[in-house]
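Hi L.,

You mentioned the student needs an example of a multi-chain input paired with its predicted structure. This one should do, with 249 residues in total across all chains.
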Amino acid sequence: MPDPGPLQSSIPAALAQVRERIARAAVAAGRRADSVRLLPVSKTFPADAIRIALHDGCPRFGENRVQEAMLKEAVFASEPEPRPEWAIIGHLQTNKAKHVARIATEFQALDSAALAETLQRRLDAEDRALDVLIEVKTSADPAKTGVAPGDVLGLVGSLAPLPRLRLRGLMTVATHTDDETEVRRCFRTLARLLPAVRDAAPDPERVDELSMGMSGDFEVAIDEGATVVRIGRGIFGARDYGANPPRLG
Ligand SMILES: *Cc1c(COP(=O)(O)O)cnc(C)c1O
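Structure written out for the whole complex:
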């Protein structure tokens, strides 16, 4: 028998472990074991890795760059079902909105009214709808993107005339630090915004998602109310941006 290779054996094992940790963290927080959605983040990892997770019960994958998501979408377009759905989780330039409108099921980094309007126009052209989460900047880190907490409700208000954008909730990336108090503060800031966002939303019943927590901090995020955790390295292994650019085939 041919060697199944490291991906085939390690991804299912890592997935099982991550699923178990998510369920345990949810129960520890007094919530249902299945109340947290796992979004595997496949950025920089090849389509081979995505295929394995796809056949292990993961329908949707997070990518932070549209260009990379499009290349992967093209790989799967010629394959039989199941095919992955895409969640774009990184800051988007307006001139790339058309690609998101074409291929994404979910966009977690909405951060301006201008981008929302462009997405609506592009979605009209594609006759599609898009689940959106507003990305909130919950830390002082100048490298982090997103809307300031005080500007979130203004952005929610601007979505009223844009029916192809279905507001589902909020997303944040916590400060990158070992200080759990600071990480927890970021998640708590996001969670506290949700009720007012729901009240101001065009369709309040649909607004129930808090996307927060990554490989290094998802258990803290679940404790603070995360309903979606975005996990890359914890499933697919270490990312190497330098010498080995992502192999897409
Ligand atoms: C890369 C990325 C993740 C996943 O990070 P890991 O540390 O690999 O789990 C989550 N969210 C966003 C926005 C990302 O860009």
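You could point out the following to them. The mean pLDDT is 94. The two ends are 23 Å apart (CA to CA).

Best wishes,
N.
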